[in-house]
Amino acid sequence: MKLSRKHFIKTLGLGAVAAGSASFNTLGNVEGNVFEEHDLTLGLASYTLRKYSLDEVLEIMLRLNLKDVAMKSFHLPYEATETELRYIGDKVRARGFNLYGGGVIYMKTAEDVDKYFNYAKAAGLKMIIGAPDHQLLPYIEQKVREMDIKLAIHNHGPEDAIFPSPKSVYEKIKNLDERIGLCIDTGHTFRLQLDPATEIKKYSDRLFDLHLKDIDAQEADGQNLVIGRGKMNIPSILSALKEIGYQGIMGIEYEKDGEHAIYGLAESVGYVRGLLKMVK
What we know:
alpha/beta; TIM Barrel; 10 helices; globular
């Protein structure tokens, strides 16, 4: 199923976003300015806007009516003090946004685990989207129980020797605390020549988060594109998420054109919202 550019702009109702600047006037709180609600919740993985400031990210989200965000370190710095992290978290939430997670965060040592769980606590995050080394999982389970912060392990595709696929994550965490689960990256999964919709249904009981992308070819070196312009079956992914009753966020992660990501992000948001109106 494909949507024309005209249709996506009409659906989004914000065609000017893709034709304008990244600097917007403040529009106020998100509340009262949200897109029609759906069973599935569309949000943002802030890596998409890695070349934009925190204030620009918030204003872009306002213009695109995105409320839910998982922030990367570009916007929620690892080196920030506890006070600074609390300030950023409070600032984001004061604008009406749901800062639900942070990542992807890599953990190589026990010290990393301590550092990033404390980071999440200071920022008020409910979930870490992470990529820990295998040997750290028992210690991570302790931290999850101690701090009641979820960990969603992100798969990184064919280049990753640690967690390439959703299955590689699930096999390591299926017997651990139920607050440890998966963040399925649909693009990396597709590059493994797997069907993201099938993987979503297989591991639905531990699916906490999702990165939604589109890729130009189902091969290891497939490249990220605006959602709707690639080879991935996006309607099947949305249908699978509806079928399993997915309660998490579908975080758009548009990795191309970092300096001007607003254009591809706006088009992707419009395309997905158009599909959400039609997917039964």
